[in-house]
Amino acid sequence: MAQATATDDIFTTRLARHRDELERLFMSLYHNEEAFGTLLAAMESAAKDRPADLKKLDVAREADPEWYKRGDMFGMTMYTDLFAGNLKKLADKIPYLKEQKLTYLHLMPLLQMPHPNNDGGYAVEDFDNVDQSIGTNEDLAALTKKLRKAGISLCLDFVMNHTASTHRWAKAAQAGDPEYQDYYFCYDDRTIPDQYDAVVPQVFPGSAPGNFTWNEQMQKWVMTQFYPFQWDLNYRNPKVLVAMMSSVMHLANLGVEVFRIDAVPYIWKELGTNCRNLPTVHTIVRILRIILECVCPAVVLKGEVVMAPKELAAYFGTPEAPECHMLYNVSIMVNLWSALASQDTRLLKAQIDKLNALPENCWFVNYLRCHDDIGWGLDEDVERQIGIDPLKHKEFLYHFYEGAVPGSWAMGELYNYDSATADARSCGTTASLCGIERAIITHDKPALDKAVDRDLLMHRAMSFLRGFPMLNCGDEIAQLNGWDYKEDPDRIEDSRNLHRSKFDWGKAELRNEPGTLQNRLWEGMASLREMRDDPCFAPDAWVSTWDTFNDAVLAVVRQIPGETIVGLFNFSGYPQHAHLNGSQYVMDALDADLDPYEAKIIRR
């Protein structure tokens, strides 16, 4: 009883710190005292139900609020079924994860979903339960406990914008229940949908055109910005917000420590706007952050915000009213691949400079590949400034990475090609996009060596930037494209399945055999962790690019009081020379020669 009272007191203290702001924000959306009371009751219940070991973690994280910014943070993302089959079997594979000194594991969506049309798990049928093909809630709780013991924090996606059309709310709406039709955007005719469509961009104009789908059973148009089987939630209804927040708290109590909030810029809809990045979105994210800080402060938020750098700072909030703890670094990922294909780092440098200019509370998860495609959203204004035609450059890039440009070493596929706009995205694993697959097929040993150098260059450059690195599972053993997806009728329509293949445990067995391809990549990833052991990877380190007087070479400087290191990255297939001017307050001048695709770390 004494323990329960102490816990109640802690929650009460945390809530008292935030209640006024929480109520003000909630009322600004809904003006509904009863709904606010329901939210508070859900928070109190979740706080009481929180397991004792997680309550201890809450206290520890409150004393160490920048735990996720430390230099030893090293992440990986994967699909549970592709890596191990299910959650129980994944728990048995934790020694493999510990070998890599992982501190962060992002499992792709594993909540209850329809089969087969689930958009890789992003169409959710039940936000409170694990999909039975992967395991149970008990399996998830057992896994998170084992991961915590191994020093690994689990990240799960939380799909805030929509549910599956088979969710119980959607089923009730289709059956004619007006209460649940108000959980979505349902209209009898095209009057309001046409008003939205006049200004709201299409997410997938090629594969899922329009923002609304006609539902025959309901005899209404329903908003479906992503796919017809994903119904957009109506956050104007307070019941939606309270229910979704309750599900977040439930998952946190199963041991989830990081939530990647999916498609968050889209969650508030307003006629006459493009329904992107509206101020009310930030109100909702701030409400979520407050709820976490009251109920489960060990948990952090990672936003998926595929927007221009000028839009990103708002999703972190302010030091006084924070929102996301960190964001996916989508723009740097795209610019890294652009730099590699073009052997030109100017766009990459400009983008890094923009992100480094963001406030200190902005933090990123850096990566090369993930479950998704590479969308070529480069900064067109900068492209024009330096004499690059944006459309021609985009066409060059996606054709280069499908291997259709003379001299290309890449093997990949297009995703969502749109002939009207000449837009397309790219799919493939890191190894295959860097040329490893083509070199193996052609038995070209020199080409294979160069391809491995490209792969390691990309990982080293990504890991040197502000934030922490996340590998895509299989990158550590140079896993190649899974072309067999074309033989599966449930998967053939989505080319992203090219890089969503079963983990090759046979190849992984070769990781400790010197001279093997797998060992070269495995040792290369170990070198990333060694590099990041340097004190200059502290959370408060100063990070900046530096001019090299050579467009093929990127220079990044990291500095803490008394120590400076410089990362030089040659994105070309030729030897290069770099000159860095000195600065009275940073470092002396520097000259360096680099081999093709070499990454060189120099202490000043």
Automatic annotation (TrEMBL):
Uppermost EC category: transferase
Domain of life: Bacteria
Endpoints of the signal sequence: none
Keywords noted in UniProt: Glycosyltransferase, Transferase
One Pfam family linked to the record: Alpha-amylase
Boundaries of every Glycosyl hydrolase family 13 catalytic domain copy: 77-529
A biological process from GO: carbohydrate metabolic process
SUPFAM superfamilies in the cross-refs: (Trans)glycosidases (SSF51445)
Any one GO MF annotation of this record: amylosucrase activity
Protein name per the record: Putative amylosucrase
UniProt source species: Bifidobacterium biavatii DSM 23969
